[in-house]
Design brief:
By secondary structure, the protein is an all-alpha fold. It starts with 26 loop residues before the first helix and ends in a 6-residue tail after the last helix. It is globular, with a radius of gyration of 26 Å. The relative contact order is 0.17. Pfam families: SSF. Keywords: Apoptosis, Cell membrane, Ion transport, Membrane, Sodium, Sodium transport, Symport, Transmembrane, Transmembrane helix, Transport.
């Protein structure tokens, strides 16, 4: 997990404070939590009556009446959640500031959304991204497949993580059963989302953005006061070695490049070529074509407000480094004795890699079928360059044995899709 240099014998070990593990809430804490939940529900119900939900645009796009600031705040809140507060803080405590590259890469991609992709999306008049693909390529197979794939991706990679992280916080703070906390989160979210549509989601996102940033920046201030400033952070982090770690190894020793974003291209955990090139590809998909993100921008009243929302979200993406990651690094100094080093078994890693490779192979076969099709004896309909007047000119004869392979069938259908213009 850690690849820092050899351990020095002069490193100081800070004992864990006696307060670690204490999670008793006083009356003020409980009142703040109750006020928070009431505020979120109040904003959700207020937005229900503020917008017209009787039409498709009114329900799914908030009537296309949103100004730039709730759009930008909602873009930020849709990306930053409980998973980020736990994950970024943990990554900072474990390996330094390298993981913030994911957030700062998103700063550029959300601007790319506003200035390159949104003009096309808005001019097309679509409501969802699957609908855009249907208009662009025709047919319902691509439309349905993207909708189903997006649901699976969000259920197993986004919603499940955020539900667990949020429920884990409620369990630690209120000592509730974690399953009861999950049910509570689902009920509250579904209550204002289903009843209020996108308008309720955007306004509650804006309220939660203000709450999250206020609380996180306040915590950052207290953290720096406790640790003694930036210099103490730089010095103390390199000496924060946990009491319990794997013997005769560098596991648990702070990385030498902990305060570097661009790290060694061969031996580091986040090589700089991957940060610049490899990270940009999934980031562009997420920020520029993901339904949850793009839907917020489509709710803007015009293109100028949509661009303003992207610009605000880009500025807000600077803050997680200061508000989330740095307090996580400071926690390693203040609670060194509580840091736990975990090294996954080799069998678990191999099993995970096999599952990922198998899933990737199945997705590859699926998309090949969607865009290229399997060989068939049925006629294939393609655009004819010689005639467009008679219906028979659009129907080819059954493919010959030499052209019935996957490659020939794929090329034929790709020529069909590539030559079809936008039908807006």
């Amino acid at each position: 997990m850690f690849t820092a240099g050899p351990q020095e014998t002069s490193m100081a070990i800070t004992p864990a404070p006696s307060s670690v593990g204490s999670s008793t809430l006083v009356t003020v804490d409980i009142v703040v939590l109750v006020i928070y939940f009431i505020l979120v529900l109040a904003v959700g119900f207020w937005s229900m009556w503020r917008t017209k939900r009787s039409t498709v645009d009114g329900y799914f796009l908030a009537g296309k009446s949103m100004t730039w600031w709730p759009v930008g705040a909602s873009l930020f809140a849709s990306n930053i959640g409980s998973g980020h507060f736990i994950g970024l803080a943990g990554s900072g405590a474990a390996a330094g500031i390298g993981a913030i590259a994911y957030e700062w890469n998103g700063m550029l991609m959300v601007l790319l959304l506003g200035w390159l992709f949104l003009p096309i999306y808005i001019s097309s008049g679509v409501t969802t991204m699957p609908e855009y693909l249907q208009r662009r390529f025709g047919g319902k197979r691509t439309h349905l497949s993207l909708a189903v794939l997006s649901l699976f991706i969000y259920i197993f990679t986004k919603i499940s993580v955020d539900m667990y992280a949020g429920a884990l916080f409620i369990q630690l703070a209120l000592q509730w059963n974690i399953y009861l906390a999950i049910v509570l989160l689902l009920v509250i979210t579904a209550l204002y989302t289903v009843a209020g549509g996108l308008a309720a989601v955007i306004y509650t996102d804006a309220a939660q953005t203000a709450i999250m940033l206020a609380g996180a920046l306040t915590l950052m201030g207290f953290s720096f006061v406790e640790v003694g400033g930036w210099g103490a952070l730089m010095e103390g982090y390199s000496q924060a070695v946990p009491l319990v770690r794997v013997p005769n190894s560098t596991c648990g020793i702070p990385r030498e490049d902990a305060f570097h974003i661009f790290r060694d291209p061969v031996n580091s955990d986040l090589p700089w070529p991957g940060v610049i090139i490899g990270m940009s590809i999934p980031s562009m998909w997420y920020w520029c074509s993901d339904q949850v993100i793009v839907q917020r921008s489509l709710a803007a009243k015009n293109l100028s407000h949509a661009k303003g929302g992207s610009l605000l979200a880009s500025y807000l993406k600077i803050l997680p480094f200061f508000a989330v990651m740095l307090p996580g690094m400071i926690s390693r100094i203040l609670y060194t004795g509580a840091v736990m080093i975990f090294s996954p078994p080799v069998k678990s890693v191999i099993k995970h890699l096999i599952c990922v490779c198998a899933a990737g192979f199945l997705c590859l076969c699926w998309w090949w079928y969607l865009f290229c099709g399997f060989p068939s004896s049925r006629p294939v309909r393609v655009a004819s360059s010689s005639s467009t007047s008679s219906p028979s000119a659009h129907t080819c004869s059954p493919p010959s044995p030499s052209s019935s392979s996957w490659v020939a069938s794929g090329r034929e259908l790709m020529r069909k899709y590539a030559g079809r213009p936008f039908n807006f």
